[in-house]
């Protein structure tokens, strides 16, 4: 029987992996080489550094999986050198990240009384999350520009723009991985110099990795009175946040943009499928058998769905102000990791079916991800 060690914050592990071996949960930030020395399979989240040091005492490990999109916590060359199979969960929580961005856009639009359909959005990084954001922006009729030199070079046929052009949009949304080497390294992509070129009326959103923005440079710019609107889900040096920066943000959250229940559960499901493939067995469990119905799963229109109704529906499923309030009130009480650990259930737009009857539900709602009944 295999020993499967998994991060305690990974949902539905018993449902997916229960039949494949003995299950042992661990705390992602505290786990050490001794604790996992007899693991055959190791399933982690982004807070566990998987490297030679962690695996040093384990002679039998054959599979490492991370239920995340980001892989900057994994020493992949080391795993390859030891012939240890590896899988991440590309795209698992991309819809969740996109819905975070859309909710934040609606909230900032209401706060500053801006018609969001008149804004331009610059998306830096046009992979899974950036693409999902662009699809939802297109549904809202919002103009967007993509910057992704790597995809552009690889022959992706979408229209791409320079970083400079994209950073000049009304709203900037960052969706790059954290990389520290190479021509397109993203560590401090927004450094003091690039930040200083932003205009006070721009909005800057980030839900990728904290280190992509130089947080100290951002803080000193805000302390000097720069008006930039800030939506920060990720922070340099998590779980230690540069606390003075929080008061300058419009929305601040604890790295939960990808934390819809569907997003987290998809991560577990993708690792289950990858392990099945590694073991050459057929997967038998699917997400639809595991996910519960949403608390509110149906909404009946009693008038045509206009933009006011659309915004109400977006906020009904996910209002990012809830997570902002939790962050501001709980950070010093329970800490960054515990906010994430105790994250309340959040569902994706697709969990809500709109019953339109004689009214016009509009294609826009469907394109945003809601279901039409
Ligand atoms: N906050 C959260 O909860 C959350 C959730 C999911 C992902 N993430 C983070 O977001 C990152 C992006 O996720 P994804 O699913 O879109 O990843 P992805 O790999 O699908 O896409 C990232 C894209 O960024 C591009 N890129 C790399 N360097 C670039 C640069 N210098 N300039 C412009 N583009 C560049 C790549 O070519 C790629 O297309 C992940 O690596 C992860 O770190 C955070
Ligand atoms: O990379 C990702 O997929 C996201 O950042 C994800 O939300 C990380 O979540 P964690 O593993 O830290 O719980």
Automatic annotation (TrEMBL):
The lineage of its organism: Bacteria, Pseudomonadati, Pseudomonadota, Gammaproteobacteria, Alteromonadales. Residues 112-257 form the D-isomer specific 2-hydroxyacid dehydrogenase NAD-binding domain. Homodimer. It is an enzyme of class 1 (oxidoreductase). CDD domains: ErythrP_dh. GO terms for molecular function: 4-phosphoerythronate dehydrogenase activity; NAD binding; protein dimerization activity. Its EC number is 1.1.1.290. The gene is pdxB. It catalyses: 4-phospho-D-erythronate + NAD(+) = (R)-3-hydroxy-2-oxo-4-phosphooxybutanoate + NADH + H(+). Belongs to the D-isomer specific 2-hydroxyacid dehydrogenase family. PdxB subfamily. Pfam families: 2-Hacid_dh, 2-Hacid_dh_C, DUF3410. InterPro entries: D-isomer_2_OHA_DH_cat_dom, D-isomer_DH_NAD-bd, Erythronate-4-P_DHase, Erythronate-4-P_DHase_dimer, NAD(P)-bd_dom_sf, PdxB_dimer_sf. This is Erythronate-4-phosphate dehydrogenase.
């Amino acid at each position: 029987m295999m020993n499967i060690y998994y991060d305690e914050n990974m949902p539905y592990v018993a449902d997916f992996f229960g039949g494949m071996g003995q299950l042992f949960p661990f705390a992602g930030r505290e786990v050490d080489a001794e604790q996992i020395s007899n693991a055959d399979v190791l399933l982690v989240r982004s807070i566990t550094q998987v490297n030679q040091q962690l695996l040093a005492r384990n002679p039998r490990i054959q599979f490492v999986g991370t239920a995340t999109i980001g892989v900057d916590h994994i020493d992949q060359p080391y795993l390859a050198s030891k012939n240890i199979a590896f899988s991440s969960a590309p795209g698992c929580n991309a819809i969740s990240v996109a819905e975070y961005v859309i909710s934040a856009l609606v909230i900032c639009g209401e706060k500053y009384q801006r018609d969001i359909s008149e804004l331009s959005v610059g998306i830096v990084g046009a992979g899974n999350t950036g693409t999902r954001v662009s699809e939802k922006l297109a549904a809202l009729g919002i103009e967007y520009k993509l910057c992704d030199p790597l995809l552009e070079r690889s022959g992706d046929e979408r229209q791409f723009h320079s970083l400079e052009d994209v950073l000049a949009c009304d709203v900037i949304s960052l969706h790059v991985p954290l990389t520290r080497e190479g021509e397109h390294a993203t560590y401090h992509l927004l450094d003091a110099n690039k930040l200083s070129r932003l205009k006070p009326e721009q909005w800057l959103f980030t839900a990728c990795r904290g280190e992509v923005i130089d947080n100290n440079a951002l803080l000193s710019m805000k302390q000097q009175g720069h008006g930039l609107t800030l939506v920060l889900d990720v922070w340099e040096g998590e779980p230690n946040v540069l606390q003075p920066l929080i008061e300058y943000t419009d929305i601040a959250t604890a790295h939960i943009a990808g934390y819809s229940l569907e997003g987290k559960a998809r991560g577990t499901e993708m690792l289950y499928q990858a392990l099945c493939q590694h073991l050459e067995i057929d997967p038998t469990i699917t997400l639809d058998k595991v996910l519960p119905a949403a608390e509110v799963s149906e909404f009946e229109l009693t008038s045509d769905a206009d933009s006011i109704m659309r915004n109400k529906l977006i906020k009904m499923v996910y209002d990012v102000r809830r997570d902002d309030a939790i962050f501001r009130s709980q950070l010093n009480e329970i800490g960054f990791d515990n906010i994430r650990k105790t994250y309340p259930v959040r569902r994706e737009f697709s969990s809500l079916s709109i019953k339109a009857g004689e009214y016009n539900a509009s294609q826009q709602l469907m394109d945003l991800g809601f279901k039409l009944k």
